[in-house]
UniProtKB/TrEMBL annotation:
It holds the Pfam family Methyltransf_24. Gene3D superfamilies: Vaccinia Virus protein VP39 (3.40.50.150). One of its GO terms (biological process) is methylation. GO terms for molecular function: methyltransferase activity. InterPro entries: SAM-dependent_MTases_sf (IPR029063). Transmembrane segments: none annotated. Keywords: Methyltransferase, Transferase. This is Class I SAM-dependent methyltransferase. The keyword Methyltransferase applies. The keyword Membrane does not apply.
């Protein structure tokens, strides 16, 4: 049986603003619990308002490790005003730009998980460039352009320990199914083609791969 969150964690996840559907969230949670057994931090790229972070934070709590979540909190391309995924409530009226950090902090506080998460506020490649600790999970759910998805993979996959899990969201092999582009699918193909990763599970658009070799 894959590990499942307690009802109150599942309820907090389902109540949180964000983009992760429940069945994919459950698969992510199971992967995070498994990865937590390595005793290393669990890293997410793409915090947004903390919906998926709740799951990583609870898995981290179970494992006695820390969840790390990276976001500049200014939103991806498709979340900007005028685009399908824009939520006007995420705009800071004082500066007129998106700022999802306050909502993220409220989400974590309400879920009682603040102590298990370190929020890294900045551009993913910039944070990755100064990062120097192995992680047990890399969950890629940041920008969906080729530039951003590739940079997330190139920046963070090198920090993934042997046996650690690489989870990629929004992997759409069929272009008719995708809503935000196929860059995550291309990253998934690249990881498999590298020979460093072996597929563990596929749950709709969530793919989980294990590091079974060196490189990216
Ligand atoms: C699809 S949302 C994440 C959804 C979230 N995981 C959830 O469960 O609701 C993508 C997030 O990635 C962030 N993002 C996009 N490109 C980024 C970059 N280069 N560096 C840091 N964050 C980035 C955006 O600000 C946005 O909050």
């Amino acid at each position: 049986m894959p590990a499942a969150p307690e009802p109150e964690i599942l309820a907090a996840f389902e109540a949180a603003k964000g983009f992760m559907p429940p069945h994919e969230g459950l698969a992510l949670y199971a992967a995070a619990v498994e990865a937590g057994r390595l005793g290393l931090p669990l890293l997410e790229v793409g915090t947004y308002c903390g919906r998926s972070t709740i799951l990583l934070a609870d898995a981290a709590r179970r494992a006695g490790v820390t969840a790390l979540t990276v976001d500049h909190h200014r939103g991806s391309e498709e979340q900007q005003p005028g685009w399908d995924y824009h939520d006007p409530a995420t705009v800071d009226p004082e500066i007129g730009l998106m700022d999802t950090l306050p909502t993220f902090r409220r989400t974590l506080h309400r879920a009682g998980l603040e102590d298990h998460v370190v929020a890294l506020v900045g551009r993913s490649p910039q944070v990755a460039a100064v990062w120097n600790t192995p992680v047990g999970l890399v969950f890629v759910d940041g920008g969906h352009t080729d530039e951003h998805a590739s940079a997330d993979y190139e920046g963070w996959a090198p920090h993934l320990a042997e046996g650690g899990l690489l989870a990629i969201h929004d992997v759409f092999p069929d272009p008719r199914d995708e809503f935000t582009g196929q860059a995550p699918y291309r990253v998934y193909l690249r990881a498999l083609a590298s020979g460093a990763f072996t597929e563990v599970s596929a749950t709709d658009s969530l793919r989980v791969l294990r590091r079974t070799g060196a490189g990216i």
